[in-house]
Amino acid sequence: MTNLGYFMAAYIIVWIGVFIYLFGLQRSQNRLKKELESLKKILEEKG
Amino acid sequence: MQRNSLEKILIGITFLSLMASLYAIFFYAPLEATMGLVQKVWYFHLASAWVTFLAYAVVFVAGILYLSRKKRCFDILGYSSAGIGVVFNTLVLVTGSIWAKPIWGTWWTWDSRLSTTLILWLMYIAYLMLRTSSGEDSKGARLAAVFGIVAFIDVPIVYMSIRWWRTIHPLVFKSKGTEVDPAMLTTLLISLVAFTLLYLCLLRQRIALEHLKDELERVKEKIRR
């Protein structure tokens, strides 16, 4: 691999790492929000 | 000003600063004479290391505050910061390894700086495993807080390792100052600011996630009754 290859690999890995983490956080937040909404509906129905 | 507006401003400033750091790295910072292009890995490598130390320092402070005040918010802060710290610690190890291959001729060597950084990474993975397995239990939170405080001892050791022991790792900032080119130093400072802002954005998201989990547990408890 050339110097350019190592340089690009490092930057791509950093960005992919950060985006995967951010994407994972967003996905978990959306999943929890949906679950929370459905549970709140159940709670309302229970009275 | 509303909380959402502040968050949007923070995200906007973070995005702009990250773009500014990329511009500075690619177009402003000069090429290093002997290492060439691969030296530019240093800007993100050092910025990731700074965020790692910052994140673990927050875990340390949050641990002390949790033990003294017993408030859940400090437990959440420590746990959230440790997660982000491990992500950036991983990036430090990976980018360092990519830089080492063309410069040292090897991906990894048991150098004092590399070894202590790996130990740091393993310790905070252990912290996350401990905190995750103990759930909402306050005893588990206390144990994790103590672990987070003790694990922080490795941070100054990592920093001082290249001063205390024989090493092949470059020493950029010496007690007498630095010999780094001013344009390189400016680029590094922009990267440090950008990564610090990125850390704050991620921390905000991570804490929001933990609050959502807490709210979910409360609603589940109400349904069970």
In this structure, how is the largest beta sheet of chain B organized?
2 strands, antiparallel
Structural class of chain A: mainly alpha
Low-confidence stretches of chain A: none
Number of helices of chain B: 7
Spans of chain B of 5+ residues with little confidence (pLDDT < 50)? none
For the secondary structure, the number of strands of chain A is 0
Q: Which two chains share the most extensive interface?
A: A-B, 27 and 33 residues
What is the multimeric organization of the chains shown? heterodimer
Overall pLDDT level of chain A:
89
The DSSP helix count of chain A reads 1
The total strand number of chain B stands at: 2
Provide mean pLDDT of chain B, rounded: 91
- Calculate Rg of chain B over CA atoms: 20 Å
How many domains of chain B, as an integer? Answer: 1
Report the biggest beta sheet of chain A as strand number plus sense, adding barrel if it closes.
none
Distance between the termini of chain B: 39 Å
Distance between the termini of chain A: 66 Å
So what's the overall shape of chain B?
A: globular
Beta-strand portion of chain A reads: under 5%
Helical residue percent band of chain B:
over 70%
What does this structure look like?
The complex is a heterodimer of chains A (47) and B (225). With 47 residues, chain A is an all-alpha fold. Chain A contains one helix and no strands. Chain A has one helix at residues 3-46. Chain B is mainly α and 225 residues long. Chain B has one domain (3-30, 40-224). Chain B is 80% helix and 2% strand. Chain B has helices spanning 3-28, 41-69, 72-104, 112-134, 138-151, 154-164, 182-224, and strands spanning 173-174, 177-178. In chain B, strand 1 and strand 2 form a beta hairpin. In chain B, helix 3 packs antiparallel against helix 7 (182-224) and helix 4 runs antiparallel to helix 6 (154-164). Chain B is globular. Chain B starts with a helix and ends with a helix. The mean pLDDT of chain B is 91. Classes of the chains: A mainly alpha (47), B mainly alpha (225). The interface between A and B is medium-sized, with 27 and 33 residues.
